[in-house]
Amino acid sequence: MSMRTLITGTGHFVPPRVVTNFDLEKVMNTSDEWIRQRSGIVERRHVEEGVMTSDLAYEAALRAIESARIDRSEIDFIIAATLSPDHYFPGIGVIVQAKLGLVPIGALDVRNQCSGFIYALSVADQYIRTGVYKKILLVAAEVQSTNLDYSDEGREMAVLFGDGGGAVILEPHDSTDGRGILSTHLFADGRHVPDLWLEKPSPKDKPTVTEELVKAKKFFPRMDGRNVFKNATEKMPKAVRIALEHNGLTVDDIALLIPHQANDRISQMVAHNLKIPLEKVMRNIDRYGNTTAASIPIALDEAVKEDRIKPGDIIVLTAFGSGYTWASAVLRW
Ligand SMILES: CC(C)(COP(=O)(O)OP(=O)(O)OC[C@H]1O[C@@H](n2cnc3c(N)ncnc32)[C@H](O)[C@@H]1OP(=O)(O)O)[C@@H](O)C(=O)NCCC(=O)NCCS
Prior knowledge:
There is one protein chain. This protein is of the alpha/beta class. The protein is 33% helix and 24% strand. Bound molecules: coenzyme A.
């Protein structure tokens, strides 16, 4: 009997405050037309003051637990993925653990930005298949709106990113029916760190926060948009092809492709490159912007709720982001 990892519950939570492109026009030098044309984004969610990443993660986790029809006390491990933790340290895994009342189970934080969900899924898959854990909560969440540079210097990024959280529950499954995670493939190229990063604070500086660094806007994330675009559109299709080949599948076998929602133009180019019709590609960036690690579990949960996935379907996930890191996963739902 071969054991695979099955996603038994999904959930997501986005903050209620909708920020449209027109709202952004009022606070920064941009236009609805520019944002829509370049990214397909129409609106995104921003948290109210004081709401932190662990709050969104907690809400998403509750929804995933409910959807898996388990009692939260059955969860035996937590994996959390985010680039925007509540604090520099510790990560949000332990905060979510305490909020859920699950002391003293282990809580691991994964820091792989837009690829964070698939990296975390890969880790969870190893633990489940080796029998170490039986019910893992994987949660990914981001609060990005509070630390974006809304001036001309940072506007390229400020319009793209949004806040939100998504979660899944993972359990072992006797896979005689072929269902479960079939594979995960992880990649990285650390030569591109400055292409998409938040450079400071860094222990390189003593003290780590100075007025000069604040004036130089070193605490805002920065991106070389063109390079990121070029690499994302190359590397995601490649990762998908490697994954399909590994499983003896073809693009025609895919029921739904869920790419990280970086930019709708990127998703369309990935689909075009793979020759997969857009109807088979999950796209919700118009409503949420780029929610980094949370984008795939949010999209997955929406796909489940919209009945776009049925048992036995081949679902392919792929992501690309800061690092660079990129990844793919194949699931038989
Ligand atoms: C950011 C991105 C949308 C820009 O698209 P682009 O086609 O390279 O941009 P264009 O060349 O058409 O436009 C650049 C111009 O728009 C301006 N601009 C940048 N942001 C703007 C904004 N929010 N509103 C209006 N104008 C803006 C720039 O200052 C530049 O002006 P200039 O030509 O006078 O110097 C695109 O590079 C991209 O999507 N990159 C990948 C981003 C991403 O997905 N990141 C996350 C990965 S996980």
